[in-house]
Design goal:
Structural class: alpha+beta
Pfam family, one: Fer4_7
Radius of gyration: 12 Å
Number of strands: 2
Bound molecules: iron/sulfur cluster
Order of helices and strands: EEHH
Shape: globular
CATH architecture: 2-Layer Sandwich
Distance between the termini: 19 Å
Largest sheet: 2 strands, antiparallel
Number of domains: 1
GO molecular function, one term: metal ion binding
Keywords: 4Fe-4S, Electron transport, Iron, Iron-sulfur, Metal-binding, Transport
Cofactor: [4Fe-4S] cluster
Protein name: YfhL family 4Fe-4S dicluster ferredoxin
Low-confidence stretches: none
Strand content: 5-15%
Length: 82
């Protein structure tokens, strides 16, 4: 999963781009729910939020390092639940 750092300027452009609805406005800045972020695996070749973020504040979440297969399985679970 990816995460949003405190460099976020709350510009709001990433939230609608997320195919998994993983991005939400937290108490201070936008946040990513790691249980829903597939790093866009299953939907797009590149993380969409990273593509649009003007301040490049969306790195990998070091607490949720996942390989492509794990991310794909998460995608399958999320789409089955939808
Ligand atoms: Fe959503 Fe993709 Fe960004 Fe993860 S990488 S938060 S799935 S847009
Ligand atoms: Fe924050 Fe970047 Fe999302 Fe804008 S695009 S709300 S700066 S994380």
């Amino acid at each position: 999963a990816l995460m949003i750092t405190d460099e976020c300027i709350n510009c709001d452009v990433c939230e609608p781009e997320c195919p998994n609805e993983a991005i939400f406005l937290g108490p201070e800045i936008y946040e990513i729910n790691p249980d829903k972020c597939t790093e866009c695996v299953g939907h797009f070749p590149e993380p969409q939020c990273v593509q649009v973020c003007p301040v490049a504040c969306i790195p990998l979440n070091p607490e949720r390092v996942e390989d492509k297969e794990t991310l794909y399985q998460k995608y399958l679970r999320l789409t089955a639940a939808a």
